[in-house]
Every structure is written in C-alpha cells, then in structure tokens.
Amino acid sequence: xxNDIDLSRVPRHVAVVMDGNGRWAQKRGLKRTExxxxxxxxxxxxxxxxxxxxLSWLTVYAFSTENWRRPLDEVRFLMHFNESLLLRRRDxxxxxxxxVRFIGRRSGRVPKRVLRHISDTEALxxxxxxxxxxxxxxxxxRAEIVDAVKSIAxxxxxxxxxxxxxxxxxxxxxxxxxxxxxxxxxxxxxGEFRTSNYLLWQxxxxxxxxxxxxxxxxRRADLFSAITEFQxxxxxxxxxxxxx
Length: 244
Ligand code: IPE
Ligand code: IPE
Ligand code: MG
Fold this sequence. Notes:
binds magnesium ion; 6-stranded parallel beta sheet; about 40% helix; 7 helices; binds 3-methylbut-3-enyl trihydrogen diphosphate
C-alpha cells in the first residue's frame, strides 16, 4: 500500500504497458473490446494513485505501431474508444491538474478527427503541472528513433547540426517528447516478459517490473507495489552503486 512507499524517494517517471485486456475479457466470456473498455477504470484509478503519491510523469502504452495488425473491428474500436475517453474525461483530468500529452506518429492511419481531439486535449491541459499523463498512441520505439534520425538528417542538410557532434543528447532532443525524463520504472501487466517496442531509447536504464495482473484489474495498489519494488532495487547505471 502507499504506506510502504518512501514518499521522499518517489520515482519521477513510471511507464506502463497496459496489457491483458483481451485475456481479461475472454476469461469472462466477453468480447476482447470489452476488456479495453474495462481498462478505463484501471487507468483512472492509477492516475489518482499517481497524484496521491506525487508522481510527476506517468506514461501509458495505449496503441502501438504494431497494433494495426489486429482485426479491423478491434482497431476501429480502439481508435474510437481512445477518442471518446478523451472527450468524456478530459475536463476531469484538467480539474485534477493533469497535463495530457501524446507521443507517437501523428500521421498514417490515425483518423484526422482523433488527431484533432488529441491536440485540443493537449492544449486544454497544457498549463497543468501536477502530473503529466502521456499516452503512447500509434507509438513504436523504433519508429520514434527513425523519426528522430530523419529530423537530425534534415538539420544536418541545412547546416544546423555538425554530424561529428551528434551525441546521445542530440538524439534525446529529437524524440517525440524531448522534455520527458527517462522512465525510472517500466511496468508491464499480464505476465508477459517483453517491452514490445515501448520507449526503446528512454528505457535503457529503467527498472523493469512485471506483474501477472491483467490491465483491467490493475488499481492504484498495484502502482504502489511497483513503486515499492523500485525503491528496493539498487540502481547502478554501470557503476558500482551504493554499497548497503
Ligand atoms: C492491451 O491488451 C491493449 C492493447 C494492446 C491496445 P491486449 O488487447 O493486448 O490484451 P491481450 O494481450 O490480448 O490479453
Ligand atoms: C503492447 O501490447 C502494446 C500496448 C499495450 C498498447 P501488445 O499486446 O500489443 O504486445 P505483444 O503483441 O504481446 O508483444
Ligand atoms: Mg497484449
């Protein structure tokens, strides 16, 4: 519970792969899409928990560049569901002091109307500072690196970047959200042990936390246990760390 968390050492950024919606639904004899719908409560409870413990950045994987491979009906549902979630709940998020942002490709097959609601929501909540809730939507870590490389190449061509001076910082500055700190913790639900192209560059030193909980069952208590687990890890970043 939140009592176990050392509030003076809350991570800055927790990233979550919200996985297991389909299996949650199938276990109940429901359609997979009903699992996605049930994920909304999990998300909002997690957001409220994040606000309670003073987390500044929460990033959630909502739709990957690979999720286009799913049946058209499910893809359509996910596009519409994410849009309607924004429209129904952005005022509430705004009142809670949440800044909503999106990372991912804002092109390709995402309907124009959805893109418009995304930028409207970002504008509405832009001044909020309690928590930045970032949706990774039409997001792929490799696509993000490709897009960064393209824009760096463009600046090289224009003479604004000297190729011999390209550094890790150059790449970080060309990602979708250059001001976003790297995630301290990366949580994946549903008992899968992979990151599925999530925050490939940013998660280089994230502490990985895997849980069997299916996303629709995830609640703030699960966020708190991930944070507690993180606080018990010894991060070394290649050094020798803090000997206990
Ligand atoms: C995660 O749940 C949501 C998205 C990928 C959009 P899944 O739909 O992947 O659920 P499972 O993994 O099939 O159970
Ligand atoms: C990752 O889950 C993407 C999201 C949660 C949006 P997937 O269910 O798509 O990942 P894989 O296919 O199991 O790797
Ligand atoms: Mg899945």
